[in-house]
């Protein structure tokens, strides 16, 4: 019986080599039941017309690796199937021989279909009356895996893996065709990169890492035999199971087969069988939840940024699918040293189990590169041990989002953010400077002022329930102020009047030019063309924003008016090593920069912002100590900035600027905006940002701010008047 079958198989092999294979005959040989169904005939015939080119060019889904700015520190991995392609020369010969011994002993001899194996399967299937053996070669298994991996629907996955004659026929046909165009070594390399080894490990590189924490080039004989034995049934032979007897037996079978095929001598085979299984398991991290401590919020911002890039796919889901399957190598902007400094400074002042979120974002002026994102939270979905909700109305049904949360507290997600208080005075000042009002513009600033946006009149006598009457934080601020003193001391009534002169809409549009977006319904309404002209309170920071946006906006000022969109990447390389390009052929990771205000206007704003930090203006009189007068003594290099608090100290901010780094820090309760941080906590963002700037810039060259022209400072074209004793 077997001899007759082998003669038939030999005849078919001859037909195969001349390209005259008859699909139905082979299917009938391997699966007798197929010959009895017309469905099998039709599906098998359809399969013969499938092109083989896709199999040659197809690479399996690959893990994307995301690194910090140094290019070596792994930040995160993204994958559907944990797999990284590796070439045959990086896989030990022992591993190559083990997989051949375990799965296809005649791999180097057949032409895609092993007809001796087919004959054995035919006999076994005849006896069983069903499919009990499949006679799949490594080439056929590779074909099956590629068809599965390239499937777009569950139905296609099922068709690629179902136990039918039609599927086997398709695999045979494609395997034979594939071996006409690819060498055995190429096929073996491809197979070792698609095979599933269990424990989420696809491909031999992943398997060596997951089971033994080593590279495939370093696998020993017992290790290689163990991995090779897993392919047939990873769950059944799982060496990490409580009882490893099945795994040991399967490994020893592979070792014996290697000896039978001459890959091992008897002594080495005996020594390999005597070696106990010694695993060094590692769990491959996936996505942002398993990234390095303190880095999760930056990782999540990167993921959101990626999903929003048109050059990476047609829609957010397609872009994320590509991230998980595309095998990208991404170098991010995150500076590990600056990130660790920023995180340490945050935790120094606010514990993780505090309802208050203290955080900061560092952006590089002139590039927009996000160098750090730190907050006193743990990036985690586990809320079981979180503290009580700070809103009494929610406390019975919800836990608070501390210390664990995945909410985008620092920006780059769908949270609206927090009111930023007087930091918004920057946008009003820029609008005024751009309209030709110099820094020495003087305005009498009373303790309380009635805004004309409500009453149409400027007399305090009309202050009442129907009027908006902003006041200064202290009566000592009453008097005549310029932009230097008004900004340095954060005089509300000065800036409300300045905003009336330039028009509230001009301040709103300035903020938009510097990268702010309106996320709440009320902010969108107030910023609309119909309402922006009357948004008098805008200059006092009543709109919501995020630390990421504010760092980007103030970095624009520090970069002489060049706005660069905050961006979390330096380079994005595809599987073949080429840079990822958008539809216009431009690198997706390019800086997105534009000159949005003139350098002279930006320099004027910096000069006034120096009054805040104690660094003193270069061209004017600060009129007393600024609201963050100790920042310069901490940073010990040129620094400007702006502090900000909201009504009733519900949130507090400080944004610090140097020519090389801008940091926006805040403290607030994300769960309950009505929960006041209080005056005792209001200084924490200022201290955190100042010490982070000091430590992050330590060892770097001291860079100076360029003073503004006399036209911006004093409204004349005369030579700039540089004040004495300016640092």
UniProtKB/TrEMBL annotation:
Reactions it catalyzes: Preferential cleavage: (Ac)2-L-Lys-D-Ala-|-D-Ala. Also transpeptidation of peptidyl-alanyl moieties that are N-acyl substituents of D-alanine; [GlcNAc-(1->4)-Mur2Ac(oyl-L-Ala-gamma-D-Glu-L-Lys-D-Ala-D-Ala)](n)-di-trans,octa-cis-undecaprenyl diphosphate + beta-D-GlcNAc-(1->4)-Mur2Ac(oyl-L-Ala-gamma-D-Glu-L-Lys-D-Ala-D-Ala)-di-trans,octa-cis-undecaprenyl diphosphate = [GlcNAc-(1->4)-Mur2Ac(oyl-L-Ala-gamma-D-Glu-L-Lys-D-Ala-D-Ala)](n+1)-di-trans,octa-cis-undecaprenyl diphosphate + di-trans,octa-cis-undecaprenyl diphosphate + H(+)
Glycosyl transferase family domain segment(s): 74-258
Superkingdom of origin organism: Bacteria
SUPFAM superfamilies, sorted: beta-lactamase/transpeptidase-like, Lysozyme-like
Stretches the record annotates as Disordered: 380-402, 708-727
Xref: InterPro entries: Beta-lactam/transpept-like, Glyco_trans_51, Glycosyltr_51/Transpeptidase, Lysozyme-like_dom_sf, PBP_transglycosylase, PCN-bd_Tpept
A Pfam family it matches: Transgly
Keyword annotations of the record: Carboxypeptidase, Glycosyltransferase, Hydrolase, Membrane, Multifunctional enzyme, Protease, Transferase, Transmembrane, Transmembrane helix
Transmembrane segments: 12-34
Boundaries of every Penicillin-binding protein transpeptidase domain copy: 361-671
Entry protein name: Transglycosylase domain-containing protein
Source organism phylogeny: Bacteria, Bacillati, Actinomycetota, Actinomycetes, Micromonosporales
